[in-house]
Amino acid sequence: MLKEQIIHDLTLLGGQPVSGQELADRYHVSRNAIWKAIQSLKENNIPIITVGRKGYALPPDLDLLTEAGIRQNLIPEFQDLPILIYDEIDSTNTEARRRIARGNTAPALLVTGRQTKGRGHKGSSFESPDKGLYMTLIFRTELPPDKLILISKAAAAAVCTSHCQNDTAPLSIREVSDLWQDGKKAGGILTEAIAEDVETGTYNLCFTGIGLRLAHPAMQKISRARLAAEIAVYLLTADYRHPEAIERHYKRFHI
């Protein structure tokens, strides 16, 4: 828990250093406990730097996927959104299905930079290289089965209207929800749902997975935490009952 608190606070400081004593006072532990936690984080490839006698800091341009980094980019309405960060996982959509089976409630955001068994459409695998952005948003919807495709369209539009869109190598949408960049597939979207009311056929629980490989040089300077927040906010605020805005955004990038 101490290590997570340190990462949280250093992320929020945006590169500004904080002393070991200040951290010790904040968490009511000894300076030695702070030092040990910092060393452990460094051993786990978290590049914490020592800034002279000013203390510890994270590089300001470091792209860490942390709960704090995502939460600071959410709008106030969603500050209580449960966010789960995984160092590595088989598939965020598979984990979403497991969470629902265990009775966990929606909404929730699951995020990782490394998938070992990413899933695509019709049972296909989805190649998920390290340091990408792989996320699944679980939320409730009242859309009928034949309208669920609108959620995938919204997710594709969310990516293409986010801060990762650029003029050097613009993102586009092919098929329904394949994301392409500079002639190569850059990502994909998989929307699944579970019917809670079988009689009416209403799919109340939806989980939409977005996989972005971020391999193109034009994508190397984006913030994955900010991108995850932007996509989540778009999906949670979209008006699925009046989808004109979604369709308009979607058609701008569909080829």
Describe this structure in words.
The protein is of the alpha+beta class and 255 residues long. Helices cover 33% and strands 20% of the residues. The chain has 2 domains: 2-57, Winged helix-like DNA-binding domain superfamily/Winged helix DNA-binding domain (Arc Repressor Mutant, subunit A, Orthogonal Bundle); 67-253, Bira Bifunctional Protein, Domain 2 (BirA Bifunctional Protein, domain 2), CATH 3.30.930.10. It has 8 helices and 9 strands. The strands form 2 sheets. A 7-stranded mixed sheet has the order 3-4-5-9-8-7-6, sandwiched between helices. Strands 1-2 form a two-stranded antiparallel sheet. Helix 2 (20-27) packs across helix 3 and helix 6 (149-160) packs across helix 8. The longest helix is centred in the last third of the chain and has 14 residues, at 224-237. The radius of gyration is 20 Å and the shape is globular. The mean pLDDT is 88.
